[in-house]
Design a protein that fits this description.
The chain is an alpha/beta fold. It has a single domain, classed as 3-Layer(aba) Sandwich (Rossmann fold). It is about 50% helix and about 15% strand. The chain has a 5-stranded parallel sheet, sandwiched between helices. It is globular.
Length: about 130
């Protein structure tokens, strides 16, 4: 499965810790992330992460294109709902595209943990059929 990791600046440490905790599960899948998040996850976990540009440099749009073309299976987007971002519209697009293309998205630690456990159990294997 192709798993996208995105984290607002204030949630990057949380994303690192999440990936450390679920390294065993995540290591069985292909990981994608924006540049900074991907680098931080790689440094903390030793996992290989395919990196797009930094979010503010177009990485969020690159991920959106992958979602739109049904290439991603799960998005874990640890977002900070309190801090407003300049590129907020781009981030909103990720949620909208996931809804349009039936791609599960987790926006906080609780839902991310549920999704990763579902990934481990094979609950998201239906994505393989949906892509064909």
């Amino acid at each position: 499965m192709n798993v996208v990791l995105i984290a607002h600046d204030s949630k990057k440490k949380l994303m690192q810790n999440f990936c450390i905790g679920y390294r065993g599960i995540l290591s069985k899948h292909t990981l994608f992330a924006t540049e900074t998040t991907g680098r931080l996850v790689e440094e903390a976990t030793g996992l290989t992460v395919h990196k797009f540009l930094a979010g503010h440099l177009g990485g969020v749009q690159q991920i959106g294109i992958q979602i739109e073309s049904n290439q991603m299976d799960l998005v874990i987007f640890l977002c900070d709902p309190v801090t407003r971002k300049i590129q907020e519209g781009d981030y909103y697009n990720i949620f909208m595209l996931c809804d349009i293309h039936n791609i599960p998205i987790a926006s906080n630690l609780a839902s991310a943990e549920l999704m990763v456990k579902a990934l481990e159990r094979g609950d998201l294997d239906w994505r393989d059929l949906y892509k064909h």
